[in-house]
Amino acid sequence: MKLSDLVVGQQATIIDFSKDEISIKLMEMGLIPGEIIYIEKFAPLGDPISIAVAGYSLSLRLNEAENIMVELV
């Protein structure tokens, strides 16, 4: 399942990335396979989304979130 498919309040574990070219950028932001993430909120128009990962909040665009494969906790 993709990170962009989750709803506010859900938790998931990062499994993998679907595109290699964006994976390095995401890992530099702390999105590492095995990390648990929590969906905090969506912007009023649905983009970007706010997630909690590794003790901090991070905003991602939906096109970035579509490249993150997750598994529900």
3D structure, described in words:
The mean pLDDT is 92. The longest helix is centred in the N-terminal third of the chain and has 9 residues, at 20-28. The protein is globular and about 30 Å long. 18% of the residues lie in helices and 40% in strands. It has 73 residues and is α+β, with helices and mostly antiparallel strands.
Topology:
Blueprint (H helix, E strand, L loop, with lengths): L10 E7 L2 H9 L7 E7 L6 E5 L2 E5 L1 H4 L2 E5 L1
Antiparallel strand pairs: 1-2, 1-5, 2-3, 3-4
Summarize the structure.
It contains 2 helices and 5 strands; from the N terminus they run βαβββαβ. By secondary structure, the chain is α+β, with helices and mostly antiparallel strands.
Count of runs of 4 or more consecutive helical residues:
2
Radius of gyration: 11 Å
> What characterizes the major β-sheet?
5 strands, antiparallel
Structural class: alpha+beta
**Beta fraction:** 35-45%
What is the subunit arrangement here? single chain
Distance between the termini: 12 Å
The helix fraction, in percent, is 10-25%
